[in-house]
Amino acid sequence: MHVIVAAIDFGTTYSGWAFSFRTDYEKDPTKADVKHWHSGTGTLVTTKTPTCLLVKPDGVTFQAFGYEAENQYMELADKDEHKNYYYFRRFKMLLFGALGKAGIATERLTIVLEPEAASLYCRHLPVNTTVSDGSLTISEFPTGSKYMVLDAGGGTIEITVHEVQSQYTLREVRAANGGDWGGIMVDKAFENFLCDLVGETVFDTFKHLETVDWLHLSREFEFKKQAAGTQSEGNVIMHFPVSLTDLFETDKERKMSIKDTIVASKYGKTVELKRDKLKISHSTVDKLFEVSIQQIVMHVQKLMNDERMADIKAVLMVGGYSESPLLQRAIKSALPGIHILIPQEASSAVLRGALIFGHNPMTITERVLKYTYGIDKYKPFVKGKHQKSKRRITDVGDRCNDIFDKLIEKGLRVKPGETQVKREYCTVYKKQTSMCFCIFSSEEKNPTYVDDKGCTKIGTIRIKFEEPDDLPGRKVNLTMLLGGTEIIVELEDEKTGNKVINTAEFWG
Question: Quick one: pLDDT band at residue 418, thresholds 50, 70, 90?
Fold first, then answer.
């Protein structure tokens, strides 16, 4: 039992952290101290900050994160001192599969799946603080009820189906799935819109040469995105950088001003430029969300048409993108007769739920495996069946290297802390001093080799033999236990009884 639990939500576009004390959790599980971030411009205060990192010219030393990284980089760029610095944004997906990050001790780190965390938070909300469509709240769901969790973030959209086990526990009945249709897709649509106005060449030049103006414009659009869908009349007014106008009009091939070019374009009736102000109709801004929302709606409808989803009566929307009125309306329109529930703290629901899980991991009772798990193994080499490059000569004959030895298959229901697999392996060399296994996850049910497409290495475990045997065939027992949010692997030397234990991240 921990005195304090902290949670980090590392997102594609925005990140945040929060903490709660055990005494506060026992009084109110939803209570949390959530870090508030100041943008540094105006009065904007948010519960998350942009996932941006500024590293000093040595390529190693941390300088700033979030709004601070954005602001400092803009200041450096304004003085033309930014070129030797390293500025990263939206790099989360590049870290997929990385383990042991950030200096946090393994025994103090637990990974919780985002849909589960959000679901737990909403399960604990009192009826009067849960946003709903007026007739149902998630905290009232009886045991056995199934509901869909739509976790909409900046990068990815993840959809999971949960079933209520008791008042405060749940089990997963359909593994997370979805796609990269989040807020970043809207940002890309905005870039395409600007390309339509000034041309791709001018826009690319603007992004690379006028870095400060581009960052200011990007941040301003991020704020406008959050308000999109709240009005239908009038215009959205944005600052149009003078540098962008200059780049456009210094092109000798241009025969019209940027203002006249816009008038003559397909946006002639919906977009107007007055000095450095760009007036865009609400309908044009809303249209930037169209492809993203269409993809999400199509996927949700496809899932709901599955006969296994027939008893789902509600959709829980969480994540920052779920706060978009446009997305909310689209989901409600696409699912008539289904209750749409949105917590008041949709963007911080994952953080708050992660704290609940940290204080009480047993709130998750069952999951559906999203991946197949296995290890690398030697098998007798079969000519014509196995790849020649994987042939190895051992003291027990020719063996095929890198075989994916499946321990547990995707799609199976597992109970964290209870589901385990046991296997026996033998050494293949004389005087073998150790046995090492690499742990892999795979998107396929039956991969052949550990380096097949979709396979990812998630951990390694090795057991040493202090007194090697003269002959091969020494037995080692491997046990894999699916813990709450990690895979626990144990190796036992059958001859001596010596054991080693290691953990790997459990991705679901």
Answer: low
3-state secondary structure 413-439: EECCCCCEEEEEEECCCCCCCEEEEEE
Element (H, E) at 179: strand 170-179
Paired tokens of 318: 């969480």
Question: Could you tell me if 57 and 126 lie in one domain?
Answer: no
Whether 401 and 485 share a structural domain: yes
State the chain's mean pLDDT as an integer: 85
Per the DSSP assignment, residues forming a β-bridge with 413 are 368
Q: State pTM to two decimals.
A: 0.70
The residue segments making up the domain with residue 478 are: 370-505
Q: Give the residue, 205 or 134, on which the prediction is more confident.
A: 205
pLDDT at 498: 85
- What single DSSP character describes residue 142? P
Residues 322 and 469 in one domain: no
At a CB cut-off of 8 Å and minimum separation 6, what does 65 contact? 49, 52, 53, 54
Are residue 477 and residue 461 in the same domain, yes or no? yes
Give me the pLDDT at residue 373, please.
92
- Closest by CA to 183, choosing from 223, 229, 152, is 152
pLDDT tens-digit series, residues 242-296: 999 999 988 767 778 899 999 999 999 999 999 899 999 999 999 999 999 999 9
Which of the listed residues 70, 92, 110 is the one where a domain comes to its end?
110
Contact yes or no for 429/387 (Cβ under 8 A): no
How many structural domains compose the chain? 4
Q: Which of 82, 84, 62 is nearest to 71 (CA)?
A: 82
More confident residue, 110 or 478: 478
- Give the integer Cα–Cα distance in Å for 182 and 418: 35
Specify whether 59 is located in the same domain as 99.
yes
Distances (CA, A) of 390 to 50, 252, 382, 401, 403: 45, 60, 11, 5, 9
Question: Can you name the residues that pair with 456 across neighbouring β-strands?
Answer: 441
| Cα distances (angstroms) measured from residue 171 to each of 116, 217, 367, 392 | 9, 43, 6, 44
Distance, CA of 11 to CA of 7 (rounded, Å) = 13
d(CA 175, CA 411): 8
